[in-house]
Amino acid sequence: xxxxxWVAPGETVLSLAISAAGKLLTQQKLGIEDIDLVIAxxxxxxxxxxxxxxxxxxxxxxxxxxxxPAYDINAACSGYLYALAQARDYVRNNPRARVMIVTSEVLxxxxxxxxxxxxxxxxxxxxxxxxxxxxxxASPLFTFAQPTIxxxxxxxxxxxxxxGGEGYIKMNGREVFSDAxxxxxxxxISACGAEGITMDxxxxxxPHQANQRIIDAIARRSGRPAHSIIKHMGNTSSSTxxxxxxxxxxxxxxxxxxxxxAFGGGITYAAAVATxxxxx
Length: 280
Fold this sequence. Notes:
Elements: H1 13-28, E1 37-41, H2 52-60, E2 70-73, H3 79-93, E3 99-105, H4 116-119, E4 125-131, E5 142-144, E6 148-151, E7 159-160, E8 170-171, H5 173-194, E9 204-207, H6 212-222, H7 230-233, H8 240-248, E10 257-264, E11 268-276
Parallel strand pairs: 1-2, 1-3, 9-10
Antiparallel strand pairs: 3-4, 5-11, 6-11, 7-8, 10-11
């Protein structure tokens, strides 16, 4: 890792989330009143209630109180794919709905600078994505099949993230490596199978940016190329896949199949087959 971003004084998980969501709404020429659901995914909330999603929606309201459902999920580094699964379900039942997914992670204050397993990896970032049906957007950046979500629940012996001021991130790097490579490979194979394709049909994997060794290992095991931005962004937990997509999509052609796959604390894992759209 050559560079990564940490929050500046005064920046918080909330301020990063508001900034990302506000930029998305401006880009799409929308207001919060045009959004039907906000899902925020974070493993580093600064408060428990109100949720990060509720506070983001409130902060972006320009005319009284926002009127929409908003809630958080915590699936650690798999959070974005878990949120995509829930957003897809919502849009399936409400075809004209707009769902905003916000990821926001502030990990730098939780790093023990004497712990080589974690101090060199983690960083801070936020993203915002808009999920709609083809009725709303006929020219999307990408489409995606129903994500496959799974996990192997454990007590935190492999990976744990404390609340702010209550300790540091702890990770058993060797065991996380082997479990992550196995779980991500198998979960993406399952996601491909659900769509009637194989790994050979995947043009590019866009994995959670855990570390370069894991990214290289799943590429070797699957035989497919894997996109990596960890060299310049670090591990930003649930924000890594959307950030990697922002970087990868301009290099791809419409119709390319992408394998989105993640592994996170909990233990959680998830995968989805995405197809590059004409709006990339």
